[in-house]
Amino acid sequence: MTQKDAEKFYDSIADTYDWLFSDWKAVMERQMERLVPLFKRHDVKRVLDCACGTGVQSIGLLKAGFEVVSSDLSEKMLKQAIKHGKQEGVTLSTVQADFRELTRKFSDKFDAVVCMGNSLPHLLSDQEIKKALLNMHQLLNDKGLLVVDIRDLEALFATGDRFMPVRVNAEHGENLVTILYVIDLPRPIFSFHVIYIIQNKISKDYTLTVHSMDGYPIKNQQLIDLISEIGFSNVQMEPFGEFNWFIAHKT
């Protein structure tokens, strides 16, 4: 996926991105239960959230007392993050940035860099992923902490199923919203489709929209190897629901 394609995809769903979560705050709280103790153990003070989306990690970390800078490729997603921050009583410091070009945007160092939400597979080759990881590495203090995640793609593709279970079936204002995920299996990349089915509760009219993007079917060990090649050490993989977290230290 090119920078333009990814930006277009997320701009197109920014206003309804949070509908993908059955409970946005619960997701944030569950992630903070793991991130906050991890960062405190490693004396993390300053964090770069380099694929912040609508602010799940940034807001949770700010509320926990960390200094956070939030960046994302999509300006519209950043606007949603700022909006959520105000609702949660925190102020986000945001920068629009491609995570392959972070060193062009930032000169200060951070104690930790997080890249969550299955963001790395938007890059369609090992070379592009290494470019992003190198930018993260260069912005970390010595012994700084990297935390990235990817959906457990190996487990997902092993089933051979194209249709994932219904993600959301909920009310939003005057609308009933159902969201489906459909996957075109890797050949060699995969395509991922988010389908919104929206029914107005009053008129009973339906609208259906499809938002699609390409993804790189990176395997768990493959990502561990790439992180290590960049210069990180002690790379650990930890399961987290449908995702795997990868935690490493700058050496």
CATH topology term of the largest domain: Rossmann fold
The total tally of domains equals: 2
What Rg do the Cα atoms give? 18 Å
CATH top level label of the largest domain = Alpha Beta
Let me know the average pLDDT: 94
Q: Major sheet, described briefly?
A: 7 strands, mixed
Strand content: 25-35%
The end-to-end distance, rounded to whole angstroms, is 30 Å
Question: Mind explaining what this structure looks like?
Answer:
There is one protein chain. With 251 residues, the chain is of the alpha/beta class. The chain has 2 domains: 184 residues, Rossmann fold (3-Layer(aba) Sandwich); 61 residues. The chain has 8 helices and 11 strands. A 7-stranded mixed β-sheet has the order 3-2-1-4-5-11-10, with helices on both faces. The chain has a 4-stranded antiparallel β-sheet with strand order 6-7-8-9, covered by helices on one side. Helix 2 packs across helix 3. The longest helix is centred in the first third of the chain and has 18 residues. The protein is globular and about 60 Å long.
Entry summary:
By secondary structure, the chain is of the alpha/beta class. Helices cover 33% and strands 34% of the residues.
Quick tags:
2 domains, 11 strands, Rossmann fold, four-stranded antiparallel β-sheet, 251 residues, alpha/beta, seven-stranded mixed β-sheet
